Amino acid sequence: MAEQKKTNEALNVEDALTQSEAFLIKNKNAIIGAVVAIVIIVAGIIMYKNLYAEPREEKAQAALFKGQEYFEADNYAQALNGDSIGYAGFLKVADEYSGTDAANLAKAYAGLCYAHLGQYEEAIKALDSFSGNDQLVAPAMKAAIGNCYANLNQLDKAASFLLKAADEANSNALSPIYLQQAGDILVKQGKYDDAIKAYTTIKEKYFRSYQSMNIDKYIEQAKLKK
Asked: Distance (Å, rounded) from C-alpha 5 to C-alpha 86?
């Protein structure tokens, strides 16, 4: 009986192997094609990264460097539009190296240059095209948009962007600055309750900040005007 069982198991295994071989033979071309396709895709990704994406990112970073120097020296027009000795400008860097981290940063710089040059609508467009979700640069771009709207006397949008920036930054260094700017705009609009709320957030949540030292004065002024 045991001998018969072993024989049956051997036959079952052999039958399974035979069926597998038949499947492989029948579908050999399709299987080989699928394997080749996977190899080509993987190789393509590696080649794209090593031969195109990384060198392109390096070129974009190099192109960005001179613009950063101009920006830090307050030469905003040259930083934005380039010079006559080879630097293309933030606008061209953002366009020519689209998709790179450097191009994304160039959009932020371009927006700030427009803002410094008093071209607030163009600044808002450039700043809004920047993509980021970190707790430093992204909130700073929202705050910059808020300040551009303030300069265009679009105060509702200005306060809204500044409050969003403060919330996203969530830091003692940046949030109190944005909250105070928002509070000042809200006072100007006569929205005293909202202004008091912004100022009180500085007092209670960011009490270690520089702005918290004098915030009681702003809270009292808003209450008196109310």
From this structure: 84
How far, in whole angstroms, is CA 105 from its chain's centroid?
A: 9
Buried/exposed 164-203: b ≥16 CB within 10 Å, e otherwise: bbbebbeebebbbbbbbbbbbbbbeeebbebbbbbbbbbb
- What whole-number distance in Å separates Cα of residue 118 and Cα of residue 24? 70
Handedness of CA 102, 105, 111, 117 (dihedral sign): negative
Q: What is the DSSP string of 111-146?
A: HHHHHHTT-HHHHHHHHHH----SSSHHHHHHHHHH
What is the tens place of the pLDDT at every residue in 168-224? 999 999 999 999 999 999 999 999 999 999 999 999 999 999 999 999 999 999 999
Pair 10, 17: CB distance under 8 Å: no
Closest CA to 138 of 176, 180, 105, 92: 105
In contact, 31 and 69? CB cutoff 8 Å = no
d(CA 51, CA 43): 11
* Encoded tokens for 13: 């295994």
Among candidate residues 115, 150, 151, the one with its CA nearest the CA of residue 130: 115
Q: pTM for the complete prediction? A: 0.75
Dist. CA 206–CA 201, nearest whole Å: 7
Q: Encode 79-95 in three state secondary structure.
A: HHHCCCCCCCCHHHHHH
Kindly state the DSSP code that residue 209 receives in the 8-state scheme.
Answer: S
SS3 call for 135: coil
Tens digit of each residue's pLDDT (9 = 90 or more) over 34-78: 554 554 454 444 443 443 446 677 887 888 889 999 999 999 999
